[in-house]
Amino acid sequence: MIGVKLPALSVFRTRLSRFQQSYLHTCTTGTAPSRQPVRRGLATVSDTTILPDPSQKYKPYTPILLNDRQWPTKVLDKAPMWLSTDLRDGNQALPNPMNIQQKLKFFKMLLRIGFKEIEVAYPSASQTEFMFVRSLIEDNIVPDDVWLQVLTPCRPELIKRTLESVAGAKNVIIHTYLGTARIFREVVFKKTCTEAMEMAAKNVSLVRDLTQEYTARYGTNFRFNFGVEGFSQAEPEFVLELCEEVKRTWARAGLGNQRITFNLAASVEVAPPNHFADQVEYFSRNISEREKVIISLHPHNDMGTAVAATQLGLLAGAERVEGCLLGHGERTGNVDLITMALNQFTQGISPRLDFSNLPNILNIVEECTDLPVNPRLPYSGKLAFTAFSGSHQDAIRKGFQAQQKRHEENRSKGEPQIWSVPYLPFDPNDIGCSYEAMIRVNSQSGKAGVTSLLDQALSIKLPREMQTDFYKIVQKEAERTGKEVSIRTIVRLFRQTYRLGIERPLSGYVTLRSYRATVNNRRLPLLSTESESSSVTIEADIQCDGVTRTIRGSGSNPEKAFFTALTQSLNVPMTLLESEQHTIEPKSGQARPLSLSSSLSTSSSTRSYNNNSNKVASFSKISFPISSLQQTLFWGVGVSNDRSDAGIHAIVSAVNLGMDQLRQSSSSLQDDKIEYPRINIPPRGQKLMMLA
Ligand SMILES: CC(=O)SCCNC(=O)CCNC(=O)[C@H](O)C(C)(C)COP(=O)(O)OP(=O)(O)OC[C@H]1O[C@@H](n2cnc3c(N)ncnc32)[C@H](O)[C@@H]1OP(=O)(O)O
Ligand SMILES: CC(C)C(=O)C(=O)O
Ligand SMILES: [Mg+2]
């Protein structure tokens, strides 16, 4: 609990004179005094504006005069007591409330998450609600360290029915609520403050008498939770006075050391979180015998700030939180307990709730509530960790690389491996999500995203220059369709572009059928002692448009020997500029990489590879003339389980890209009568005449 030094009550009395006046006025006349709002609305309504002037329609909240508020400088350092009200507040707000089987499934899931307090029903509402509570007790489903909470209004017949529902349970919290805000008192109950207090006292006495009776009969441990409905809209002085009365009444039960709970509800969220925190701090500092009281929060989310209000309310002295998973509940819902708990987790505080298998939890919640999860919801939404935008993807990719390095150093020094990745404040793995959904590609994405997805799918890491080349191809597709480009489409585009695993020769492209390489008159592979200084001779069968040729060349390694043979054969002044290679290593924990389904051959027999493990990816950059004036750079890719073989196929891949470009520029430049290199490459569909 956060310690608060209580100033003299008189200080608050003076400061709250405005509230007092308002409260006294209301209690004596039953009507609201006119208030001086602290700020006014945006003002004049022009002729063309259709919105009403809000200053003439809505009253701003009245700030509580708590000038020495202490919550702003406090820091949360431990988890509160959590209560899930999914089976009550959540359930009462569903178009189709859960049946007994669904409630049971949900209840068991709440136990697995680690909730020790669960509001299971409004037993007097229906037979289903009543029977659900009975079945939990009679079927002995509730662990000994778990408290069942049941809700009842201040209505004697409903209180009796509620107590009947929990007969024989081990630990029970009776949650009795009463609307406290003026609008409830005047409009709903038609009672003055005094009458409302009498109503509370009478019904709390009944709960007290019945719980004593049930304790004597069944040995049940009871706690009492008084639900201050409309707390955030009520006059703080009235709430205090009412709660003091409830506290006195309950104390007469003499139920040992159990503290009474005051459940301060923002039944409707009508003011900003800082105001709620002030109200909670005021209550916490002024309720008598603070140590005998548990202050609980029950925030709703009408203004979308329930999580913020709850966090500030905890700083302000509360120690218990009631809410629902995913923020289910009346209207815009109760505070989302997943967000609350994981917000603490990411601050390095154990929430004492286990969301390590969140996808499974979400499936059960969706199944039982029949409501979909908002994809933008913190932590739980499908898009909660997804980056589509190029610069975010770039930062995340770099962040992961830097983090991997940093963690290796941390590991070696026995230091904690602290998470720190730009745009990703949290490790999706911690809640059972993979990194796969993190990066997705559309027309807003850049090279980093495309590169990451390719790496994710095939464990192929493109050289930097090549990333831009391939990204342009993917972006063109994204723009053409106007949609997200799936990982499968990226793999397909990659295979098509670099002609990986294309079984049937495409017209106009060179296909390497087979080759034989000898190193110092011995067949490949190279020995480690040979490499660059060795003399390699190659003889290869290439095919284009049904015509097969045997080409020959030599060089200091098989790739260079092949490149020489191909250059001479095509009679194209091209240059092999660069080659890079890496082994293909599926990442640990990664599903098997997508297959390249390669049919790359190293001999006259064709081999098909179904996965990429133990393979090498090779990337070759060539300079290729696409006109008599212009040389263009092309990267190609080859994959094989032999390094040289991968390199040779990367060359074929790059040359085919060059030939493709040449074909395209030939047709567009024909009218300008520019002389092309002496290479006979016909338009697609016609035969390529080999000049070698
Ligand atoms: C903020 C909250 O979430 S509070 C919890 C709300 N949850 C639910 O209401 C779900 C379950 N409720 C139900 O199924 C039904 O409302 C029942 C069975 C409890 C009661 O049904 P009914 O007797 O038909 O009454 P109804 O639903 O119209 O309730 C309104 C009555 O309850 C009174 N009431 C409302 N809240 C309270 C309260 N906290 N204490 C005492 N009386 C209350 C109203 O003043 C009204 O009384 P009136 O009929 O004398 O004017
Ligand atoms: C029963 C009460 C606490 C409630 O649900 C609310 O006020 O929102
Ligand atoms: Mg509620």
UniProtKB/TrEMBL annotation:
Keywords noted in UniProt: Transferase
Organism: Clathrus columnatus
Enzymatic class: transferase
Family: Belongs to the alpha-IPM synthase/homocitrate synthase family. LeuA type 2 subfamily.
Biased composition (Low complexity): 594-611
Start and end residues of each stretch annotated as Disordered: 583-611
Span of domain Pyruvate carboxyltransferase: 80-359
Annotated EC: 2.3.3.13
Top-level taxon of origin: Eukaryota
Any GO BP annotation: L-leucine biosynthetic process
Gene Ontology molecular function: any one: 2-isopropylmalate synthase activity
Catalytic activity: 3-methyl-2-oxobutanoate + acetyl-CoA + H2O = (2S)-2-isopropylmalate + CoA + H(+)
SUPFAM superfamilies, A to Z: 2-isopropylmalate synthase LeuA, allosteric (dimerisation) domain, Aldolase, post-HMGL domain-like
Protein name in UniProt: 2-isopropylmalate synthase
InterPro entries, A to Z: AIPM/Hcit_synth_CS (IPR002034), Aldolase_TIM (IPR013785), LeuA-like_post-cat (IPR054692), LeuA_allosteric_dom_sf (IPR036230), PYR_CT (IPR000891)
GO terms for cellular component: mitochondrion
